[in-house]
Amino acid sequence: MAWSSFGLALLGMFIGIINLEEPLSVKGYYAVTALFLTMSSFVLQKTIRDNTEDEGSLHVHMESGEEV
After folding, report:
1. Model confidence over 3-60: pLDDT tens digits?
2. Contact of 47 with 41, CB cutoff 8 Å
3. Dihedrals φ, ψ of 55, to 5°?
4. Distance from C-alpha of 32 to C-alpha of 41, rounded to nearest angstrom
5. If you compute the radius of gyration of the chain from its CA atoms, what whole number of angstroms results?
6. Closest CA to 34 of 51, 52, 13
7. Domains: count for the chain
8. Any idea what DSSP says for residue 22?
9. 27: domain range?
10. What is the DSSP secondary structure assignment for residue 21, as one 8-state letter?
11. Whether the Cβ atoms of residue 17 and residue 27 lie closer than 8 Å to each other
12. If 0-12 CB within 10 Å is exposed, 13-18 middle and 19+ buried, where does residue 42 land?
């Protein structure tokens, strides 16, 4: 469900950019910034997930008495 809503939102955004009545340079700028925003959202989500997983493994090591 999450992937389908993401795909529909991305598709809708690019359909809107294509139908925009602006020069090609403006459409290109919007398309590149939209792709950059999408990429940075994935990187941010992955970084937060990795940091959370690292904190979880740190707590497990500390509770078991292992040196980190």
Report:
1. 899 999 999 999 999 999 999 999 999 999 999 999 999 999 999 999 988 887 766 5
2. no
3. -65, -40
4. 14
5. 20
6. 13
7. 1
8. S
9. 2-64
10. -
11. yes
12. exposed
Give the per-residue pLDDT at 2: 85
Given the structure tokens 């493994």, which residue do they identify?
Answer: 57
Both tokens of residue 19?
């139908």
* 1 secondary structure, DSSP code: -
Q: For the chain, where are the alpha helices, taking DSSP H only?
A: 2-18, 24-64
Q: Is 65 left (phi over 0), alpha (psi -120 to 50) or beta?
A: left
pLDDT for residue 17: 95
Contact in structure between 41 and 9 (CB atoms under 8 Å) = no
